[in-house]
């Protein structure tokens, strides 16, 4: 009599066709477990440090950074400065009417020469604005004296000196001269260009004489 082998035979073949609602068949023998694998405790709480000093080093700012710019504070003229300016204007002795006529005659002499071309009419308008402000007392004595010096510089063919006076007026009395100073500036340009042309003609004449 043959011995009966009671060892169960595991077959991977399903002896019958599973139905649509049958649970799936798992082969538990194929699963492998990793022994002694440490578990990750994700719900473990970390204690908050009670002391203010931590072990994390504090990074210091770079040493090569440029210094912070210091804002410029506008200088507001004080009352004493304004009083001193008024006193200086009062100390200036000038015949306003005769000085105006002298300055205007010198400036118009450049305009009437015809060298300015189409710009002559615009320069005349600016000179008329200066005359109106001067006659109505809107130009203080300091501006009148500087305009006299500027006109003399143009008359004496010194455009560099005239330009210095022009810049001084634009810095110190811009509200009084800004409406008409562009015409005077055009006369300074004209005087500079005329002297440069005369210098070129002189050099060419000397060169021809040398040959």
Describe this structure in words.
The mean pLDDT is 75. It contains seven helices and no strands. It has helices at residues 79-91, 96-112, 119-135, 141-155, 159-172, 174-177, 181-210. By secondary structure, it is mainly alpha-helical. Helices cover 52% and strands 0% of the residues. Helix 2 packs antiparallel against helix 3 (119-135), helix 4 (141-155) packs antiparallel against helix 5 (159-172) and helix 5 (159-172) runs antiparallel to helix 7 (181-210).
Please describe the structure with a list of short key phrases separated by commas or semicolons:
mainly alpha; 211 residues
- Report the β-strand fraction as a percent range: under 5%
Give the biggest beta sheet: none
Mean pLDDT: 75
Return the structural class.
Answer: mainly alpha
Shape: elongated
Low-confidence stretches: none
Q: Termini separation (Å)?
A: 150 Å
* SS element count, helices: 7
> What percent of residues adopt helix (DSSP H or I)?
40-55%
* SSE topology string: HHHHHHH
Rg is 49 Å
The overall strand count is: 0
